[in-house]
Amino acid sequence: xxxxxxxxxxxxxxxxxxxxKQNALNLALYDGLTAALQQAAEDPQIRAVCLSGExxxxxxxxxxxxxxxxxxxxxxxxxxxxxxTLAAFPKPLxxxxxxxxxxxGTTLMLHCDLVYxxxxxxxxxxxxxxxxxxxxxxxxLLPQLVGDRRAAEMLLLCExxxxxxxxxxxxINRQLAADELQGFAYSQAQRLAAKPPAAxxxxxxxxxxxxxxxxxxxxxxxxxxxxxxxxxxEAMEALTAFKERRAPDFSRFD
Length: 254
Ligand code: COA
Hints:
The chain is an alpha/beta fold. The chain has one domain (3-178, 196-200): 2-enoyl-CoA Hydratase, Chain A, domain 1 (Alpha-Beta Complex). It has helices at residues 27-42, 64-69, 71-87, 104-107, 138-155, 163-168, 181-193, 197-208, 212-230, 233-243, and strands at residues 3-8, 11-16, 48-53, 93-97, 100-102, 114-118, 122-124, 174-176. Strands 1-2-3-4-6-8 form a six-stranded mixed beta sheet, sandwiched between helices. Strands 5-7 form a two-stranded parallel ribbon. A hairpin with a 2-residue loop joins strand 1 (3-8) and strand 2. The termini are far apart. The protein binds coenzyme A (COA). Coenzyme A (COA) binds at residues 21-22, 24, 60-65, 100, 102-103, 126-127, 130.
């Protein structure tokens, strides 16, 4: 089971369970997450969702093997629907993040209402280094949150950063001890699940109102650019280099 779905006291717990690949999201995981979020949105018995990853790492991003094998079809069929579902999710979403949070592992945090990490958390947005472009609305949400200068360090230089910077930039709520992380995130989700659900949903919608329409549009604009780049020689070189465990060589590109 690559996605563990459990419901306890009105909280849906979603756990990425592909630790041998650092919880990289393959198409099955995207589809599983989309279905689970849709179920959680519709079921009045579910009041909050808590997202976490099994093992030492939260999520090492989109599965690079899938990029190479399913490319555009996978993007359209599984990735983009997930991003729209995530961005429109109407109930509170809490994340517990440890270890690597790469690519979508970081950008999905921008859609969570509360984010908790431990001291092993490490974030990276390597889209450009992979010959790709930012996704999940991050080209809009990240500059809004951290300003254009820091966003350029993250999205153009693809610099990784750790817990202190994530806290300072307002990307996370709190850093916890490793053995407290999961329990604390779940208890926060439980606190939310005990609140009046209509008021909570409206408050979340109001917080996110300024972006609601433009966010879905941005996801589509990014996806079109992402699709163009995914089939480019630049991306092929970068993705193949990852598979072959060698450094990419972009010197031949204009
Ligand atoms: N897609 C597919 N497989 C991935 C993966 C990904 N995004 N991230 C990690 N893996 C796999 C590795 O291929 C390796 O598999 P193997 O043991 O069968 O060879 C395994 O997970 C462990 O990864 P490894 O690279 O050995 O671990 P590490 O601790 O040295 O490095 C990362 C961790 C996350 C820095 C590194 O794996 C990485 O850069 N991954 C790609 C991240 C990425 O670019 N994601 C896409 C963003 S759009």
